[in-house]
Structure formats: C-alpha cells, structure tokens
Design goal:
The chain has 478 residues and is an alpha+beta fold. It has 3 domains: 199 residues, RRM (RNA recognition motif) domain (Alpha-Beta Plaits, 2-Layer Sandwich); 89 residues, Alpha-Beta Plaits (2-Layer Sandwich); 58 residues, no CATH class. It contains 9 helices and 14 strands. It has a 4-stranded antiparallel β-sheet, covered by helices on one side. Strands 8-9-7-10 form a 4-stranded antiparallel β-sheet. Strands 11-12-13-14 form a 4-stranded antiparallel β-sheet, covered by helices on one side.
Length: 478
C-alpha cells in the first residue's frame, strides 16, 4: 500500500480530430472511466471484515455520496488492523481529493480515527471482499448501479464499448479464488474468503510482505515506479507523521489505562496500610507515655528503704530520712580503734555542746557489715545538725583526732548518688582508654573525659545520673 500517488484526474486532450475517447489514451493520458483506488485505514484488529466493509460503505454514502465510489475489498494493515480499498473514477480524482481532505476528520469508527491513504493500482489485488459480504452498488450522483446482479453491465458495456471478441485469458493471481459468473453479474463477481496462506503469498508476489512484529529491523520497501514529485513525497511524509502521532497517542492512552489498572489497586491498599500505620503509631505513643509514667513511679518506689530512708516522687529528700538528723565524723585514722572513735565523738559533744542531748553514737558500716572509718551522732532535729556543723566549721572545732571532718550526715539519696558517681567513673575508664578521666563532686558534679562532661547528676536530687556523647550506651545497673 502506498501514499505516493495523488487522486488522479483526467487530462484534456489537445487533439480536435478523430475519436475523442481514443485521443484520451494518447500521450499517456488516462481515460475518464479508468479506475484508481484509495483505502480507509485504522480499523481495529478486533473488528470483523464484514463489519468494516459495511461501515466503509456507510461512511462513503454519508461523506462522499456525490461521487461514484465502490468498496473494492478489505485486507490487514500495519499493526494487524484492517484497511478497506475504495474504487473511484480517474475523472473525479481532483474533486474527490479536495472532498476527502475536507471531511477526513469525520472518518471514525468506535472511537478510532480512520485515515484515508492512496493505494497504488498494482496493490489493489491485496484487497478482497469477505465471503459473508457481497459487492454493494456504487454510490453516484450521476449514475445509479443496478441492484439486480443478473442485469449488472460488464465493464465494456458500462463505459459504452462493445467487446470485439473473446477476452484474453488472465493468469490467476495469488490470493484470489476464481468464481464462475453463473448469474451473469459481469464486473460484480463475488470474491470468496481468502485463506491466510494465500494472503501471504499475494503480499510476497506484490513485494509488500509485512515485517515480523518480533523483529526490530525493517526490510527495505519496494522501489517506486514512475515519476514522483516533491509534493507527493511531502504528502507521504505528512501522512506518515499524522499516522505516527495517532499511533503514539493511542499507545500512550493504552499504556496509561494499563498502568492505572495495575497501580490503582496497589494505591488503595497502600492508603489503607498508611491509615493503619498512622493509627498504630498514635496508639504506640499513648502506650509509651503510660509505660514511661509507670517506670518513673517504679523508680521512685525503688528508693524506698528500711525506716523510710528515701526520696519522694518529686526527687526531694524524705523529711523522715535518718541521715538528716546525723552529725557525721569522717576519715578517722586507720590505726584508731572503734572504741577510740566512739569516745572521741562523745567527748567532742560533751566539751563543745554539753547542753545537746544525743542518741546513737556509732560508726557506719559497709556492704559486708564491717565498720568503716566514718562515724555519726544522731540528734533529735536536723536544725541541731546544722548548728553543730556550722559552729565546727566557723570556730574550727576539732575532736581528739585533728584530721577528722565534721559534716551533716548523708541521706539515702545522697548515698545512692555517691555510689552512682563512682560507678560511672569506673565504667567510663573501661572505655576511655588513655584519655584523662576526672570526677567532680561539688559544682558541675559528674565525670569528665579530656575536660568534656560525659556523665552528669542534674538536677540536685537525681537518683543516678545520665551518660552523654559516645558514652551514652553505658549503664549503671545491668
């Protein structure tokens, strides 16, 4: 099939003498009754051959009813769709071309845009009428074809010539099945359904074999015979561009639909999953908040010890903690005995504060229950403790052993904080390597590595403390 030929019109003969019809055949002119073909392409491959033939007839009747046209046959085209060939008289070529150009946008079928193209005469043999469809009368404003096939004129009778004898024998062409003209139908001989193998043979015979769809390469087209003008070439190029744009648009739409069909269910499922995850996240936050509160309360309860020596939930020392009523005597000499330490503490109170009544005088014990170098005197009120320790500091009061320090006793939370501070120092030294590790017990209380704080105990009554930086993975309690 080719689009390199324009709709052909009859050339006027310049000879005035002799037979006018004979003059039309001279110098290459074409007779007014010679036929050419154009095709309506773009029918989807899902269509039936008989259906596209009937649709083509109806389109010709509606859009090109003023011309003498006849459906010639149907064949496959390009992507497996169908093309329908239409026969027209050469004398109508120019007017028909103008009309087709005017109404080309109206050639449509089931949402598909149909594209009229020119068919070279030698390729008309590729088209055949389906078996279930008979040849329809030619549409014409000037001539009306007979509806009775038995009375249909032959070609010679139709153009006004009388056959001079027997017609020459014609060799059978691939793709066509000879049918006996038993009804005397003349030119309107019915063409039977063509088997696929014969269609392929016909295409090969005409040099128009279709390339394999699975192969990316395209075979070389047959050579163009006759003179081809630049206008013909440009028309072919424009037709190909239009066809390509239409194919691209159709492919893009099909691809969009296919992607949408594949993605939409996934998107719906993802939307549901997103909603579920959102709901679970909110629930997890609420649950985590509840667990955090319970952990805080449990940590506070862990501080409760024998005799109520603990800190309350807010982190402040328990007002009933015995340590608040104890005067501590720290760092007795190692060589001193327990009795000497207890006697020294009693003598200190008798000499410096004879009016103060006190209770227990004893030494602190370690985890194993052994006495340490630190002792204490318990009084009735924490304010007495503050009075004694302040006086000892201001007046530089001393007991028998001058190196002993007199300070307020430690509460349970203070003892825990002291333990946590030294325990943190030990853990950090295991990881710090050769870097300098220092400990501060007063302002800026914590553990430092090369001057940077890596463990702190803020606020004042924090139970243990917090590791920082590269040491934040360490834990005090395993």
């Amino acid at each position: 099939m080719s689009a390199s030929k324009k709709f052909t019109t009859v050339k006027k003969s310049t000879k005035k003498k002799g037979n006018v019809r004979a003059a039309q055949f001279e110098d290459g002119d074409e007779t007014a009754d010679s036929h050419h073909f154009f095709a309506i392409t773009g029918f989807p491959k899902a269509s039936k051959r008989s259906e596209v033939v009937e649709v083509s007839r109806e389109l010709i009747r509606q859009l090109l009813g003023e011309f003498s046209l006849e459906v010639h046959g149907v064949t496959t085209y390009q992507d497996g769709g169908f093309a329908v060939a239409v026969k027209y008289f050469a004398s109508q070529g120019e007017a028909l071309e103008s009309k087709v150009s005017e109404v080309k946008g109206l050639f449509q079928f089931q949402g598909f845009v149909l594209v009229p193209v020119i068919v070279e005469d030698q390729f008309a043999t590729q088209f055949a009428m389906p078996a279930s469809t008979t040849a329809a009368p030619r549409t014409s404003a000037k001539r009306s074809a007979s509806t009775d096939l038995s009375k249909s004129p032959t070609v010679d009778e139709f153009i006004g010539n009388t056959p001079s004898g027997a017609l020459p024998a014609v060799q059978p062409l691939p793709g066509f099945t000879a049918v006996a003209d038993v009804a005397g139908a003349g030119a309107n001989v019915i063409i039977n359904t063509i088997p696929e193998a014969e269609i392929v043979a016909a295409q090969a015979h005409a040099g128009m074999a279709v390339d394999n769809d699975d192969d990316d390469t395209v075979s070389e087209a047959s050579e163009v015979e006759g003179d081809v003008s630049l206008k013909d070439v440009m028309r072919n190029i424009n037709t190909l561009k239009k066809q390509q744009r239409q194919d691209t648009k159709r492919t893009r739409e099909k691809t969009r639909v296919m992607i949408a069909e594949a993605i939409d269910p996934v998107w719906e499922q993802m939307h549901k999953v997103h909603g579920t995850v959102d709901e679970l996240s909110r629930g997890a936050v609420l649950q985590d908040n509840r667990i955090g509160k319970l952990e805080s309360e449990l940590e506070a309860l862990k501080l409760v010890g024998a005799g109520g020596a603990s800190s309350d939930v807010t982190g402040n020392p328990n007002p009933n903690d015995p340590g608040l009523r104890q005067i501590a005597f720290k760092e007795f000499p190692k060589k001193s005995t327990i009795d000497e330490r207890i006697t020294a503490m009693k003598d200190f109170m008798r000499v410096n504060f004879p009016e103060i009544q006190h209770g227990i005088v004893d030494c602190f014990v370690n985890k194993e229950g052994e006495y340490t170098r630190n002792g204490f005197i318990e009084v009735s009120d924490r304010r007495i403790v503050r009075r004694v320790t302040t006086s000892a500091k201001d007046q530089k009061l001393q007991c028998r052993f001058a190196e002993v320090k007199i300070k307020p006793g430690n509460t349970a939370i203070d003892r825990n904080r002291n333990w946590a501070l030294y325990a943190a120092e030990d853990e950090i030294k295991k990881v710090a390597g050769k870097r300098a590790v220092t400990l501060k017990r007063a302002e800026g209380r914590g553990v430092y590595v090369d001057g940077s704080c890596v463990f702190s105990q803020e606020p004042r009554f924090a139970r243990d403390g917090v590791f920082h930086g590269e040491f934040q993975h360490l834990k005090l309690r395993k």
